[in-house]
Description:
Strand content: 5-15%
Radius of gyration: 20 Å
Structural class: alpha/beta
Oligomer: single chain
CATH class: Alpha Beta
CATH architecture: 3-Layer(aba) Sandwich
Number of strands: 8
Bound molecules: 2-acetamido-2-deoxy-beta-D-glucopyranose
Largest sheet: 8 strands, mixed
CATH topology: Glycerol-3-phosphate (1)-acyltransferase
Helix content: 40-55%
Distance between the termini: 55 Å
Order of helices and strands: HHHEEHEHEHEHHEEHEHH
Amino acid sequence: xxxxxxxxxxxxxxxxxxxxxxxxxxxxxxxxxxxxxxxxxxxxxxxxxxxxxxxxxxxxxxxxxxxxxxxxxxxxxxxxxxxxxxxxxxxxxxxxxxxxxxxxxxxxxxxxxxxxxxxxxxxxxxxxxxxxxxxxxxxxxxxxxxxxxxxxxxxxxxxxxxxxxxxxxxxxxxxxxxxxxxxxxxxxxxxxxxxxxxxxxxxxxxxxxxxxxxxxxxxxxxxxxxxxxxxxxxxxxxxxxxxxxxxxxxxxxxxxxxxxxxxxxxxxxxxxxxxxxxxxxxxxxxxxxxxxxxxxxxxxxxxxxxxxxxxxxxxxxxxxxxxxxxxx
Length: 328
Ligand SMILES: *[C@@H]1O[C@H](CO)[C@@H](O)[C@H](O)[C@H]1NC(C)=O
Ligand SMILES: *[C@@H]1O[C@H](CO)[C@@H](O)[C@H](O)[C@H]1NC(C)=O
Ligand SMILES: *[C@@H]1O[C@H](CO)[C@@H](O)[C@H](O)[C@H]1NC(C)=O
Ligand SMILES: *[C@@H]1O[C@H](CO)[C@@H](O)[C@H](O)[C@H]1NC(C)=O
């Protein structure tokens, strides 16, 4: 009983705190919106710092207060590099894992998520995402394409620093979706995956082709994996659990690959094959993680990827030094 009360208390404290913070930021964003007309770069930078501080609160609760331990393997990314980031989609937790890399590589202010259109109406968080200029999509290519083109053209024109996060599977991985995906794969003569869905490639094709010969020169491939020390592979905490409880019995792993956009084929059919191959590799890696967790993988040393803490990150977010200038 006491345990439950304290969990509820913590949930109310962190959830409520973050929510109020978001609403306060929404107000600041609105009040400062005239600045957008005067100095676009400053306004965007302020926006990004404010948005980043919301991500930061959530991140610090996850990594420090509630002891969520994330490990990393694969390519060591440079700081402040622009990229299209491809992620396998499991749950809401995914964004916390993606953000964990963004904080360590100083790209939090560049994060651009594709969010579900309906989120726009969610007070606090959703409004914040709207004001941050996240890209809202309806998962309907005909109606989304225009919006995405417009967003991308703006980014290219201003050489805006970006990390564009795309979930190529288009939806979260679930048992039912996997069965549907298998049927689809059989129909099209595609490989059968067990840990990811067949990627949809329209959005990816559009992103990669839109950013060819631009300031965005890399695709990052992130494979996210979840485990629970007793309950096993694929088990992950809900957002409510993350905000309310110690999560040190969960394990989180991210495998990172860095791929030059130049090396990705331009032709539509080849891009598709390329994406299928990428998901094939993800599936294999996840299978290994499922059986052996990170035993067979070279994990990047902890010191290199340690969480530097709330104050350090806050200072970074609002510092006015060259941090604002991003690599091309
Ligand atoms: C930043 O905030 C202003 C309002 O202050 C808003 O109009 C603008 O769309 C926001 N997004 C970006 C990416 O600058
Ligand atoms: C997708 O959007 C187009 C254009 O807005 C519309 O005509 C079509 O009915 C939509 N399709 C679905 C499945 O909602
Ligand atoms: C893929 O991108 C090319 C170049 O932008 C475009 O011509 C083609 O229509 C796209 N294919 C799909 C399926 O979106
Ligand atoms: C798990 O580890 C064992 C022993 O190291 C190895 O034989 C097996 O192939 C691994 N599983 C996968 C899917 O790689």
